[in-house]
Specification:
Structural class: alpha/beta
CATH architecture of the largest domain: 3-Layer(aba) Sandwich
Helix content: 25-40%
Largest sheet: 8 strands, mixed
Shape: elongated
Mean pLDDT: 85
Order of helices and strands: HHEEHEHEHEHEEEEHEHEHEEEHEH
CATH superfamily of the largest domain: P-loop containing nucleotide triphosphate hydrolases
Strand content: 15-25%
CATH class of the largest domain: Alpha Beta
Number of strands: 15
Number of domains: 2
Low-confidence stretches: none
Length: 352
Amino acid sequence: MLTEEQVIDLLKSIRDPFLHRTLEETNGIESVTIREEKKHISVKILIAKPNSAEQMQLQQEIVGILKKNGATTVGLRFDSLPEDVIREFQPTEQQDTSILGSKKQPHYITIASGKGGVGKSTVTVNVAMALTRLGKKVGIVDADIYGFSIPDMMGVEERPVVRGEKIIPVERFGVKVISMGFFVEDNSPIVWRGPMLGKMINSFFKEVEWGDDLDYILLDLPPGTGDIAMDVHELLPSSKEIIVTTPHPTAAFVAARAGQMAMKTEHEILGVIENMAYFESKVTGEKEYVFGQGGGKKLAEVLDTKVLGQLQLQQPYEEEDVFAPSVYQEDHPIGKEYHKIGAKIIAQVEDE
């Protein structure tokens, strides 16, 4: 009867049908069990794509070899190779060279809202700035295809360049940015349908050269729960979500839908940011709750999460030599609040 070593020796030169590497090279022979009295051999094999037609052919080949060499019966189990092994041996033409195929994955954070006009893009820009000031490498994907605004908010005047087959994102204040706004002339309206938009979102990940040193990619989603938001949730291996609302009960009620979609697609909600929470009078110092109170807290309770921050109504400082109309300076009161929010995000994401 065959020994375990002999079984391994017989099978080690068989090639994985997808990686075209031997089972010895991929460590694809995970276990061998022999029952001498019944001349039964059980083998567990790891391959790149189990449950495929190629697996069936491989199964017949292995059974034939073992029976030819003395086994009466053969039991085979197949499972998937570890992802790092598949990436290592995957043929070059099949390798995913995009950020999604990178060995070092950034933390993906989607910024969502139930409706427009709550300051979601402003939050995206300033959370990115806060994370950058805290020493992180950050990129922004302006996925709000119809309502792109990130380039204008950050004062980006350059356009991406193409190097080889990759688009090089524009960098501003140390943040890498890609947006539909870079590919539209004269602020023209977008009249594409859902499938076309989905392809554009896919391009923002597959055709953009983000590099391999990013710690975070923030995605400014369109408001609501439409096709683009769904495409993003399906495209990303995992992401965490921040929901932006105003204190108004209606805004919070509508924002809950975006949060519930994130939960249904198994994307964790980091928390709620309540924007335009109040206006503080420079004359009296009193807070005026222009849009009501309590929306952020109520939304956080509904989604079983926390309020990451409450931001007042206030403009960034005007700077003659820097045009970035929606970027709050580090020493600005709201800039300091974003700094706290950034620190909370890092603690929550990186301590897991």
